[in-house]
User: Fold these one by one.
Assistant:
Number 1:
Amino acid sequence: MNNIIYALKTSWKASPSRVILEFIVRLLYRLYNVYHTVFLLGYVFNAIENDGNVYYLFLLVGISIILMVAYDYLAAWYYNAYKPYVDQDVFREYNMLIYKKAAEVDLECYENPEFYNKYTKTLNEMAYRFESVLSDAVETAVDILMNSYLFAVIFQLDVFAVAICFVPLFIKYIIGKKLNTERFKLFTDNVEHNRRKDYIKRTVYLKDYSKEIRTSNIFSLLNEKFKTASYEIMRNIQKYGVKIAVLDFFNTSLVVIFTYFIAILYASYRALVAQTLSIGDYIILVNAVSRLSALLVGFVDKILRFNENSKYISNIRDFIDLKSKMPSGKDHISGNLPIRIEFKNVYYTYPGQVKPCLDNINLSVGAGEKIAIVGLNGAGKTTLVKLLMRLYDVSEGEILINGTNIKDYDKNEYRAIFSTVFQDFRIFAATVAENVLLDTVGKKDNEIDDALSNSGIYQTLIEKCGEHFRDKVLTKEFDNEGLVLSGGEFQKIAIARAFIKRGGVAVLDEPSSALDPIAEKEMFEKLLSACKDKTVIFISHRLSAAALADRIYVMDNGRIAEHGTHEQLMGLKGIYYKMYVKQNKRFSNSGDSVDEEEQFSLVE
Amino acid sequence: MVIRLMKKSNSVLSNNLFMLKEVIGVIPLYVIGTFCLTIARAIVNAYVNVYLIKYVVDAIQFKAQYQDILVSVFWAAAAFLLHKLLESGFINILAPKMTQKLNYSMQMSLFCKAREIDIEKYDQPQFYNDFILSMQNADAKAIDVVDTINTLIYNLTSISAMVAIIASIDTIGLVFALINVTFAYFINIKTAKPTIKRNWSLYRQGGSANMYDEFSIFLSMLKKFG
């Protein structure tokens, strides 16, 4: 019941006028239906049988037509003009509930397939279920009114006929409930397979995957997975289908047998054998019994549907009520303060894994200090940054910012102190300015220009798009004239984000992977100069860039293996030294645009 | 004008026939089963809802034997139950499996087609809207076509059954029915156009539907009146 009330409250909040109009339109429809099938027909038959007044008959038919036209006009206006228009707002309101939550949930949830299934189920079903609850609730209210009225009419004609109306009610309740349960089971068992199929359908047609699909054998693999998902769905249909078919048969046929065939036999008996009904009353009785039964069955149907909808709405509520496993603290923090960072005995293990990804990390970064984190792939560098930003919480140990555990800070305020550029950055189908600010654009043209200039893309944008480049839409997703840049150029736009945001800490997770060494060096120099007062943490595979940092931490297998300045680490002749020598050798052997001398000059 | 309309009708017909042929090629049993059950439903409905009522009212009016009513109701109920049994089995077991098969088969051939498309096409939003989205929903549209033809078959069978029943009672009644059908046909055609236009414009632009609304209201009112 709570779930239903929740859905109704949401619908009412979205548009009260729509709820009221829905009620009026459906009430009028039911009223007209009962009037037409029960009274008008009964009156006509009685008039024919008893040689009634033709003038009154024509008048009644004329009035009926006027009433029908008036109702139809109202219904047509409601369903064609009003509802589709208001629905835009209503569905936006419903979806915002989910989108807001999706933006809030812990990043960890996205690594959990069960979460994905629930999320997909919620998104797919939400608008339909809320709508279904609203229309069922309105119809239930209308049905109660109509049932009471028809009940009184039948009671007047024949008390026993009332009993006929109630039999299908029990059949429907018992069988219908079982049927809904089986259908829900089938639906739930298919969610994962349908999600897999949807994923493949999306992937095959998306541009992002088009190159791999054309140049590798992934296409066959996707086809195979699509086939397996289809097969699994068919297996589930086989598993539940027979039971559902049998229940569906009894659910529909037994109800019709009682509401229609038994009603006809009973009314005919009274009219023909007992001779206690006229033909007109026979019509009224049969139609009223069948209408009341239908309404009662519909009533039970709605209760069952409430039951069914409640299961889905429960998912929606579970999702919306999902509490973060990382509760927000209450302390305030400002990005304008100098930021000191300390990791104390930090361990982190990803859910479902046994081996810790970070193993007893201890490090400290002074306010305004520039540190680099280097290491081989899978060493735990990115995880360390994610823990720092509280995208995940540590499994053991603590991270302190200015001496306070980061869990004590307000989560949103805390995350706002970071200017971040991730390795797997995303460019949105929005304007250049919006992509740099990652916010709605105010009058910040100078700041945007400076940021783009520092990241080294300003001149390119001017050349390609002229003075109004800030309003140019990136990608061709929604605009034929959209600007498509190279991977390195897009990366520079992403890097500009680190220049524009005035947080106290700049975090760059391999921001320069698509840049050539010269552009990378320039970018780092500018960044370090622009972030003079900021604490900067950057991850880089290129040790020439790492050498620009005040201190370098070398990670290996989830641990900090070495740390110190470039010179100190070279003197140690450990992992860093080996990596550095190998990297230099590769550059000097490659014969690329950067020779050995240049490499060393970059380091120096 | 007439030629344009004929060309348009031809393209509508050929598009629908194309889809129907695709479906028949993959799941012929689905199409045959759906159409047969629909014809049976139309006949059973006409028998149970119209002929049976007429028979019972006549029996009461002309004081026939109650046993006659019992027998006719028994046969009507038997026909109804048999149809319902077959329909439940078809809708809940066979049809969902067959539509999965159709989905698999159509998507597989469309996946291959998508792989052949030049990558530069992806940079054209119009192309993406028109083709990619259509490809993703191709199987659903194919089933829609079968459903539409199915509805047409149901209406035609029902009309034939009704005509037979009305003709057996009073041929003048057929004139009223004919006027009604003709009126409803033209109103339906007129109503469908703005609705399709509106849905298409919403699909393409996500815009408001208001410009067509007043006309739709008026026409759907006339249609009901008809």
Number 2:
Amino acid sequence: MPDALQNGEILAQEEPARAEKGTSLWKDAFHRLAKNRLAVGGGIFLAFMVALALATPWLAPYAYDAQDLDLGAAPPSATHWAGTDTLGRDLFTRILYGGRISLMVGFAATGVSLLVGVLYGAIAGYVGGRTDSILMRIVDILYALPFTIFVVILMVFFGRNMMLLFLAIGAVQWLTMARIVRGQVLSLKRADFIDAAVVLGYSRRRIILRHIIPNVLGPVIVYTTLTIPNVMLLEAFLSFLGLGVQAPMSSWGVLIKEGADVMEEYPWLLLFPSLALSATLFALNFLGDGLRDALDPRAAKD
Amino acid sequence: MPLLDVDNLRTWFYTRNGVVRAVDGVSFHVEPAETLGIVGESGSGKSVANLSCLGLVPSPPGKIVSGSAMFDGLDLIKAPLPVLRSIRGKRISMIFQDPMTALNPYMTVGKQVMEPLLVHDGMNRADATDRAAQMLESVGLQDAAGPEARMRAYPHQLSGGMRQRVMIAMALVTNPQLLIADEPTTALDVTVQAQILELIKQMQQRLGTAVILITHNLGVIAGTCDRVVVMYAGRFLESAPTRDLFYSPRHPYTRALMDSMPSARMPGEDLYTIPGLPPELTSEIAGCPFAPRCAHANEICRRRPAMLQEVARCHTTACTRVQAGEL
Amino acid sequence: MPHNRVHTGAGRRTMMPRSLALARSPMLELRDVKTYFQILRGSLFHRTTAIVKAVDGVSLDVARGEIVGLVGESGCGKSTLARTVVRLVAPTSGHILFEGRDLAGLSPRQMRKVRPRLQMIFQDPYASLNPRMTVFDALAEPMLVHRVARRRDVAAKVAALMERVGLAGRYMKKYPHEFSGGQRQRIAIARALALDPALIIADEPVSALDVSVQAQILNLIKQLCHDHDLTLILISHDLAVVRHLAQRIAVMYRGQIVELGDAGQICSNPRHPYTQSLISAIPLPDPDKEAARMQSGVRSLESGARESQWDN
């Protein structure tokens, strides 16, 4: 703790050039996170999966659509680490490429929901009053729409394409994000430092962007890491229904569907994609839980 | 025969930044039906000392490293949890500073006052309800509609002063032998504070409860306590009957505290402030903890550990120089 | 000519000695300011179910360079009055003349231009600083936003500000939670000074601090007022604190000023019964006096209706 000065006098001054660095609350939180082994493990695993996904074009032993009809569905072997599917395509390769799609959808859709949700919630919460009521009633109404039907309708009208998939999923997830952010903003609004910002003559825009949003990021980050698994499951679900990614591209959801179809005869076709998806979801959940504990403002109080 | 006899209590906190010696060798006693005041600034350890006696110090990171607290022949420090639980709320009660958070927002006031009776005295509901209503009335909570209406109120419907009265009711309903009041009026307005302090005094006289009053406000001490102990950096620096402490303080810190109260100076003059800061409790302090800030400190003060010694009847001080007759 | 006026009704103006009135025009004139809050119910169509009259007709003049104390207990409306003057809250009626301009009718945009001249210090040093911003950010932002400084010289100005409140400039990169309560309050004071205001309202600036730190901060405030010829409205529930700095004291009760006058007079010779009860309730660090006070004072245990301002 920096020394207080004796009765208002100033201690010997050093050159302002080398100002002492402070420890932000983020650093504190990071320390706490680093102690949580499950969370760290989850984080490392996640990083590993992302790295794999990015490096897939160079790593994959086969082309994702390379068929080997003579071979057909074969169990794991030295040449095909996860076996092959009914068309002789290497499952390991397809899992790698599937991961690319699944993770991309997961992050992208979450990104959309983050952007829209945070802004929407922050504005509703800060402006308050009738605006808030109206904005939130819109959220309530949208919440009531059955998601699947909504997506199906979208797909029917606009055809099946990736962009649409992102948007559709993001469009649903932002609702909860908006609610969470709004709640945080409402309690933050009463904080004296927000009043101080008003008294200092800052514009509403500056207050929302520079003062409110950085202070709601904690729960937002946590919720984001827990949204990604949701989104991936959603995508898997859509693919399961046949509404998601189109063949010959695949996502983990598609692979799981295909595997489930032939589960009794070729169990590995279900096993490996499921393992990949589950492991990733676990990692995300552990990381999310760890972040939530680490970012708890009460733990940061001195 | 003291009601509570604390001897050489040490409570340390093991944190990432080191060992914080919050209470470092503290001994005191409370006689039945007397009011003991513990005065000190925040960080002096006064709350921790009392929480230690009741086993309420979170551990980890806290740990009671040494000491005993004899209460009616039983050492509270070594007592097992079930025994402590039977004493807490029944024979030793505690009230806290912030009435907002000390009451359960989901329970009516009446239920909260009844609870100690049901848990500790094994009363049946009907008797407990009557007793609770009586208690609420004697602490001055009245309602034009009758005591039942007050029983059914929720904490958020009451003002700060009224909530504090409820706390007092809860604490005293089982007729405890000792009441520990930790800054009970700090969060209250001054007129309400006066009423609450008077209430505590009246209840004490009526029930014969001993009271430990913890506060940083010297005015409160002057009006309510029989004896006072001054605490600083986890240790006691002076202890005396109230009049003696105020009219002939025997420790530089006590004098400095009295000097720095705003009413001590003529308006317009600068307020006297004690230079420097309280010491970091993470390092072992050789000598007197107040020495770095004391205007009268000499080498011996800095080196020799400061121990309480009697310098006048019932008046002890830990100042080496006062003990030597130099101040 | 009496300085005191005991207010029995709402909206009586204070009397200043004529000589003073001529010498300086008031920096702040409050004319029958009322701030009422409506308790609203309903999630879409808001209906008013009750009205809380937090400030109920306050009139007060504050002269340039003066320190006025505003004293009252919780619920009396002093904080709401402060927030009304600073326009954190819009007054329901009345006029707030600041340097001749009526703030009551200004739009937020117009108000923003006035703000640099009118600043506020808040009670809770833990809550009044943005925990995610360094001291440097917190002090530089107002100067940059209002173009009092440019990026290249703002660091030097921040360091100078910190020194003025007794903090070493080399700590500017630290975060609020790394400082003690007293130090945080110094930062808050520095921030209020950043825009070189003419009038500062300090809402319970030392209530959340330790007693020995209170003294330091009060001395600092006194010194700063003197050095910068600041006008200060000091709000506190602690009469002793206010008495130490203020030349005049206003006593508030239930939204109105019930007594207003010279600080020494109010403390030694209070006229209004509420002021009298307030003063008699203050515990003195003098056991004999306290014992005497307890004997003679009539203090009832009946709290009931009187204590709580808004029973549901």
